[in-house]
Amino acid sequence: MYEVNRSVIIVIPQPPFWNWLNSLPNSDLSGISLEDLQQDANSYLIAACQNADEVWDEVDKHTAEIFTAELADWCEDKILWPDIDADIFQAWFAVELSSIVTDLSEEPLEREVF
Predict the structure, then answer these.
(1) Residues 96-113 pLDDT 10s
(2) 8, 99 in Cβ contact below 8 A?
(3) Which of 54, 64, 83, 99, CA to CA, is 20 to 30 A from 23?
(4) What is the pLDDT of residues 7-37, one digit of tens each?
(5) Rounded CA gap, 31 and 7, in Å?
């Protein structure tokens, strides 16, 4: 096992995000529910933090970047996006955090730019 020099946050969609998804033109979410999205939510590695306060500081620092990534996963047309605003982000997503990340895999970490 290896402790990784990162902390992690999980960004969990909430009903306002789900409502936005359903309002998109040509939206076909058949077979997907909000609960499905919540059970397999996106995770983000952030700088290593010593405690929850530091993690929340990192979340605040990256809110626009995270919000943009979450929206872009579902809609490329930025005209259909809400304002990239911290208050809207907080209404649309719950954030779970962990200041410690442990790597149980023997495989080396890899990074891919996208």
Answers:
(1) 998 888 999 988 888 888
(2) no
(3) 64
(4) 999 999 999 999 999 999 988 888 999 999 9
(5) 33
